[in-house]
Amino acid sequence: MPIYLQLMEQVKHAIETGALRPGEQLPSLRPLAEELVINPNTVAKAYRELAHQGVIELRQGAGAFVTDKAPTQDDAEKLKAAKVLVAQGIKRLRGRGITDDEIRRLVEAELNQSGGQKS
Amino acid sequence: MPIYLQLMEQVKHAIETGALRPGEQLPSLRPLAEELVINPNTVAKAYRELAHQGVIELRQGAGAFVTDKAPTQDDAEKLKAAKVLVAQGIKRLRGRGITDDEIRRLVEAELNQSGGQKS
DNA sequence: ATTACTGTATTATCTCAGTAATACAGTGCT
DNA sequence: AGCACTGTATTACTGAGATAATACAGTAAT
User: Fold this and answer.
1) Confidence class of residue A30 from pLDDT cuts 50, 70 and 90?
2) C1' of nucleotide C19: residue with nearest CA
3) Nucleotide nearest to B42 (CA to C1')
């Protein structure tokens, strides 16, 4: 799994658990990159994506800040419930003899069709 | 979408619709490649994958043949039903405010976890 | 045995996502 | 203004998957 995606998850998780709160400033690119022993551009990409998702806000020269509409603890609950739904759905599909590859293709097709955009 | 995957789909579809029947020989690599204006190796890859999935059987020097346990018209029906299930599931998830990217990640995580292998 | 067809194997090329290196530009404090 | 910090943009490197070029090996008919 790409580094920048892992970082995005960690940030989201930190927000969901309250370790990072709306309005609060995130660690800036270079220090964080150095701490994680990765390239600043990789952090930048993660931040850019998070900003595009509305989770954080980037202000050039100032820093990166958690948005008001960032994922809350409630959202984490929702996601957990969704995870159960997905697990059940996949179990049913498998029970009907649908292979994993076919499941992947069906999901992808459905997402791309009905108003789908790969952010 | 990779050419060899598209070709795999076409072959499966041909089998499901009865255009190609169990035991019947598929067009051989080079003629088919020439007709589709693609490289024979690409056809070979598609055939190899299909053989790995048990859909067809490859006999060196002889040709490629549809297997007995290839996908039937019934399987096509099943897949259609599965498609409906997936569509419903995704609709529900979206209704709960889950984004498409999150759906993708949930599905992938679930598949990889519970006995998942990316054939 | 030869011939003309099959699929197979090996190696090289192309493409693209992810990452890295480096220079650019905005903020805010003194 | 100057400085030390922010994020941004451009360009290059790298690795993996897809495709291509070419040579190899098995089959079946004559």
Assistant:
1) very high
2) A42
3) D19
Q: What is the CB neighbour count within 10 angstroms for residue A93?
A: 22
Enumerate the domain spans of chain B.
3-66, 73-113
**Angstroms from B36 CA to nearest CA on chain A:** 24
Q: Look up the ipTM and state it.
A: 0.80
Fold of B3-66: Arc Repressor Mutant, subunit A (1.10.10)
CB contact A60 to B (< 8 Å): no
CA dihedral B45→B50→B56→B59, nearest 10 degrees, is 30
| pLDDT band with cut points at 50, 70 and 90 for residue B93 | very high
What confidence tens digit (pLDDT) does each residue in A91-107 have? 999 999 888 888 988 99
B68 within 8 A of B23, measured Cβ to Cβ: yes
